[in-house]
Design a protein that fits this description.
It is a single chain. This protein has three helices and eleven strands. The chain has 247 residues and is mainly beta. Strands 1, 2, 3, 4, 5, 6, 7, 8, 9, 10 and 11 form an eleven-stranded antiparallel β-sheet that branches.
Amino acid sequence: MKHSEFYKIKWHDTNANREARPSKLLMYMQETANAHLLANGLSLDGLRDERGLAFLLSRIAMRFYQPLYTGDEIEVQTWICEGRGFSFDRCFVIRRGGNVVAEAYSTWALLNLKEKRLMKNSEFSYGFSPDLPLESDLITRLRMPATASMEKAGERKIVYSDIDYNQHMNNTNYPDMLCDFVPGIEHRRVSAMTLSFLHEASFGHTLEVLRGAHEAGHYFRTVDEADEKVCLEALVLLEDFDTPYVG
């Protein structure tokens, strides 16, 4: 069963080139997923507080076909797909005026907080049926370069404004963080992004940000300097445009 929510792009959703940032579009996707659950008698707070369960984003692949601007009215549609094993899959499509401007495929894990274990699909019911997955060329799995072939792009401390009630960086903040380490980002547009979450980035910790070359963008790997665990692996694909907004 598919579910749609409708939004208007706000001025504060946009970057220096007046285009909606990937982080904000990811936020709208996840708010729509939350609304989908709520419309069927579930809520993230209820799952956590009453049933001791929490959905954790494992990976998401996003494609941005056209930029969105302040005042654009969008429909964000989401649905679940048939999962396997410990994977809970969910798709997203964003439309403006009926035209698809972005889409995403995500994979989630469901954690039993009390028992500290991942749950299988067979142990949980949404209460509604799955639909077919997206048919697209989204890069859902990464083939990352070796760490030795990547350069250190900088460091990023996890601060209070990054975190959610789990006390680690909310996944909707990662696209902004990665864009901060893209050389010449003011003259480029993100066309696709794949994020693979491997370990939480905790409040107060500092991440080492590694960057590697890709023919159409950059690979990224973030490493927690406290325990040397890899928190995120990502691919950011870019396209050039001729007339960036400079104010």
